[in-house]
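note to self: the first set is below, dont mix up w the second
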Amino acid sequence: MGGQQLLWKQIARHLSSHESKMTKLASSAPVLLRRRERNRDEKDDSKYRQNFTFMAIGIASAAAAAPFALSDSRKTTKHEEIINHTAGKRVKNLPTYRLEDVKAHKTVEKGVWMIFGEGVYDVTEFVENHPGGKTVMLAAGGDVGPYWNTYSQHHTEQVYDMLEEYRIGNLHPEDVKKLNDTSRSVRDAYSNDPKRHPALLVRQQKPFNAETPPLIAVQNQITPQPFFFVRNHMPVPDIKAEDYRLHIGVDRKTSNQDKDDSESFLRSLTLDDLKEKFKPKTVEATIQCSGNRRDDFNKLKEVKGLKWSLTAISNGTWTGVLLRDVLLSLGLSEEEMRLKYSHVHFEGYDSSDDGTAYEASIPLHKALSPEADVLLAWALNDETLSRDHGYPIRVVVPGVVGARCVKWLKKITVSDEESRSHWQQKDYRMFHSSINWSNVDWSKSPSVQECPVQCAICIPSSDSSIKLDSDFEFKGYAYSGGGKGIVRVDISLDGGDTWHQTDLEDTDQKAPNEYGWRLWSFNASPEMLKKSLRGKSSELELVVKATDSSHNVMPKDAQDVWNIRGIMNNSWHRIKIKVQN
């Protein structure tokens, strides 16, 4: 990298004239080490940290004058304490760069530098391998702070530690002051977010992400809107009904029509247009974040993403108009549309400071299917959508992961290719457990769409206690994507040795459109609980598994479906509880 080569030359010149001083400094001057971790062996923790590459950049290590490699991190124990710099804080004895120096490095060819706080970082290697490399490039040659204030999930110790591995120097104090003055003049992007119910289990404040309390989730088939789980990627838009416009058309880049013909298919609809020009429909449907139950993956090996527990899922009744009807109003026949196009893109009004909007897509056959019930919805549970849930219009794709159910819908585009957005191409995709961040090829796996069969225990909570003086009712939910209903949920009170069939609550849903979840319950007598203990301890291991109408079953262990993005965990749900005599 150009910046490192220049730095080494500067250090070498300094060494040639001050060799004796360097010997005295070598034992005390701070050193910044760059680490690289590759090819983790999931079965042997001692191999997790093999194959690091260390780059000595500080003056004290300059005598080496080159990178050096160690095959085992245990050899670096004596250096570990000097890696613990706080991200963005000034580090003594590192080179100082001016803002102009950083601005000159904003391409992979010249090196990609960026600023965070008082630190200067060379992230060229990271950009080339990171799934969001194109987004990272927006901060190339500048300050990443404003972007991270929008994508505030980056403000974690894990990300800070990773960032410090790329530290090459400090920003000049005058330039730090200049950037801070600019930053203070920019308002908090989340200051206009709506108020939320205090009972929600918050997993992240900015952007706001929260789960339904498990106790509330299983009280009713329909989740009340204030308790519906919230998944936001960016600040919540504040859109007035009278100002709302939905733009619909075909992708001119891929259309076989000439420009004039393409223009004739474009439409712009108001909220009143949608309500008055199309027939309304109400559909019961569950929406589940693809990261639901990610926390179980983290117990095996940490993955990237929000630490969702078991209720990043909710069920409701949605009212709106069929996407199919709106698409056919463009002027193309269904036959012609199916012949020329394959996908439908959805873009939201939510966007970052740089204008990047949330976008996703679904297959055209799903959008046009009369049985798929894909909605452009304006109401949830007979109530106007709240801002957190997509007011004034959101997409609801029953049976499909929540990432495709775009909120605050701004634009619909019919295309012959899948959305090129980060969230479609390099985020919500699933790989086997041997794929890691150093060898992932996002083109090798399709973007996730339909949800797998799933279930969980909501009552009691993990590590809680129950008494043996009366019957105890266990409760939870079960769900499967694609309109497949749940035919059975089984529970074990002894870790999976013996099983009992639970009771499923009645539902009005009928095949092949069973898009809502099924709540289940199971009453266990004190005698049954005592028998499950088998005299071994005062602890029970509860396990549940579900079977859907296609007789798809859940995998036994989370390890079987572990993946680097931590999505689609539908392994048997297990919890341990204590029993009091």
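second set (the one i keep forgetting abt)
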Amino acid sequence: MTSRKNVKQPRTTYNSKTRSGTQYGIESDERYMDEGGTRLLLRPGTTEMAPHRGLEEDRWNVAILLFLYILQGIPLGLAGSLPLVLQAYKISYKQQAMLSFIFWPFSLKLLWAPIVDSVFISRFGRRKTWLIPTQYLIGTTMILLSWNVKSFLGEKGSNIEPNVLVLTVLFFLLNFLAATQDIAVDGWALTMLAKRNLGYASTCNSVGQTAGYFLGNVVFLAFESAEFCNAYIRSEPADEGLFTLTDFLFFWGLVFIICTTLVFILKHERSDQKEEESIEGVVGTYKQLYKIVKLVPVKQYILIALTIKIGFAATDSVTGLKLIEAGVPKERLAMLAVPLVPIQIILPWVIAKYTAGPKPLNVMLNAMPFRLLMGIVFMYIVNWTPSMKLESGEFPNSYYIVILLCYAFHQVTLYCMFVSIMAFHSKISDPLIGGTYITLLNTVANLGGNWPATVALWLIDFLTFRSCHGADAGYDCDTKEEKEVCLKAGGVCSIDLDGYYVESVICIIIGFIWYRLMAKKTRQLQYLDDSQWRLSVSTV
């Protein structure tokens, strides 16, 4: 089961000069009055009342933001589907580990976000300086990639193997550009929308990025699959799906270029003098980050955040790949995400009731043992899967129902931890520098999930033991060359001990040891006085 739940970065302009603690770092002089059930807006500096028009003046702006976030989700969804696609080409888990680096840019964007937010060409527009070139680069990269992706993927069942290094570099670049676009769009939302409608910015982000990811992942995997299209769409079977990866990349590359051109020509950026910031703001932001990291409680929390997800690494990053290796169609696994969407929407609201108090991490710590135990459940499912395969090569509906129920319970434990961590970040962040502070914490939390997943994938092959069976003499099967020798000798390479089970057990044990040693310390962080998490006024 592959889990790529990233902690959302806050809408922030990284303005070190604005320290009022108001929402989004922008002070608002708009005031409201309720009268007779109608909400009225008091015009700034007057007592004159005008009806609050809500979204009337921002309908097009919300639509533009929503579409920009949908575009952003497309390369993210494609990146999420790539490991599943390549698993069908039987690449090694070390290669999967290399490929996992494509998920890192969104976890590291804090490193260059202050630059994107502060360095710009005034005549061109603060946000369009980065948005327009970035989206053109995304579109161009997708089109160029569509011309060559078939050769990079190789051919199934042949000696032409996927060029995983090139695919990793190119999709890392796409996600780096998407992360940069995210920074620019997040910032533009602050001036594109009226101040009373700024709350819709995060809604556009979550809805748009989720929709884009769904298109790039679930829709792509379903309609790219010949088996899915032949079973549910076509009346006559064909050898390919409705479209290929080449078609999908080329189409969305064109969409990026056309839409970017329309935004460049038709959408003008509203300048906000309060938002103007010199290059000195970049240096100030990096200085603040350094000062935050030096705080003793922050150091302790960073250690916790970077190690707490080790226990889930094998379950979250390898289980889905193992199910595909056992014959479960990748598109059917992707489609399981559809019925889970309502759960993902409702859960945060339910869990938030229990994380709103002074001890939000209690929810995380209470859910952690259950999430660790789900690792044992998924080990059983992976071992059980081959026995459920029918003679036709398909799996019964009852099998998918069991998988869905296990995924649903896993989502509950995952979201309990996720919402708890987000609530704790909001609780401890210094309001004087809230944007910088909370973004740093979210970045550390994301890294705490990324590096164990990469290491877990890297170690699977090392922990797996194979031998040659059926040959006259004993042969090893550790390398590709040894496997070929075994096959030429009339033998078959078989797995004697699957590294997935070894690694899962090791991770679960580490997880419970972590829980035993660190749970008390983690709880104690909640009782620290707020002043211990704050920078002194003189150092801000």
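remember for set 2: The longest helix spans residues 397-428.
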